[in-house]
């Protein structure tokens, strides 16, 4: 059994991770942690997340001695804000732990990226360089030997899983940037109260227009520029991305289907479900580890729809897929099947 600690366990993604680790036949929950001065310190996790009652009643411990937690852990899951992960990951890594970071702190290489999009200067160039981007269906080979996995953002997961097969097969005319419009449920903003996620303030709207940090994350890992516009929806969970792209001259609908099937009808890639000409729907993926992708071609354009649960395939279940790949377990262990 691998001792697994979750930092940020009281949050939305942290609680999902706790449930998965509890279910996993080869992982053992070593500890659940919150910040040193957290208002939730020493409460049972099930007091905050009632669905865990009777299953996981462990306390949320204040993270006071990072070195001691590292010593007691084989695997550390960081379900913490970017700056917190940035500071904590190197400590766990130096102690030899496998680290799976759900934040954006190690996702994109490049000197100016963190100052421009995250508001802090990155201090750990060596770990940023060593980090493997945890898009499970596309980076399995590198994930299998990584010590630090940077789990992709929620919008980047939905967007890239739809576009990558077409780019890999050379089917897109990238002179016209793919246009991604995506709507997320409010849990994407985390559990902490704020005016923007307050019930009476949430309304379907675009935000971060031309400035959202996921645009450069998507572009960097796709290797092509995109227009990306996120939207906040008045529902709890799920992301639906609707993506319009231009096909290269002569590309047929059959070629698009073949590219999607070649990418995902493969052993190990069962977390992506292909819908052909049907459109993806949130209700089919919420509370699951799946990404559903549909597409339709007309003339020289393709419209793709991609749906995930932002807290699962967009964060926690993708982290668990990466743990499974890294440690030689079946890819969807503790997730499905
Ligand atoms: N929500 C989503 O859909 C997605 C989130 N992510 C990323 O995953 C990470 C977690 O997100 P989410 O679960 O939504 O966030 P939440 O705000 O719901 O939870 C954050 C957790 O971190 C804890 N925390 C805060 N500061 C520290 C600290 N210094 N040391 C230890 N624990 C700390 C909080 O508890 P307390 O403050 O009480 O200490 C809480 O448990 C973020 O980086 C987010 O960007 C990625 C993809 C999707
Ligand atoms: C609805 C909402 O607010 N969503 C979040 C994205 C959450 C996510 O993917 O997290 P990372 O910050 O780890 O990239 C946002 O737009 O900031």
TrEMBL record:
Biochemical pathway: Amino-acid biosynthesis; L-arginine biosynthesis; N(2)-acetyl-L-ornithine from L-glutamate: step 3/4
One Pfam family per UniProt: Semialdhyde_dh
SMART domains in alphabetical order: Semialdhyde_dh
EC number, UniProt record: 1.2.1.38
EC main group: oxidoreductase
Main location as per UniProt: cytoplasm
UniProt keywords, alphabetically: Amino-acid biosynthesis, Arginine biosynthesis, Cytoplasm, NADP, Oxidoreductase
Catalytic activity: N-acetyl-L-glutamate 5-semialdehyde + phosphate + NADP(+) = N-acetyl-L-glutamyl 5-phosphate + NADPH + H(+)
Active site: residue positions: 154
The UniProt record lists the keyword Ribosomal protein: no
Compartments where located: Cytoplasm
Domain Semialdehyde dehydrogenase NAD-binding intervals: 3-146
Molecular function GO labels: N-acetyl-gamma-glutamyl-phosphate reductase activity
Function: Catalyzes the NADPH-dependent reduction of N-acetyl-5-glutamyl phosphate to yield N-acetyl-L-glutamate 5-semialdehyde.
HAMAP family per the UniProt record, alphabetical: ArgC_type1
Similarity field: Belongs to the NAGSA dehydrogenase family. Type 1 subfamily.
Name the record gives this protein: N-acetyl-gamma-glutamyl-phosphate reductase
Originating gene: argC
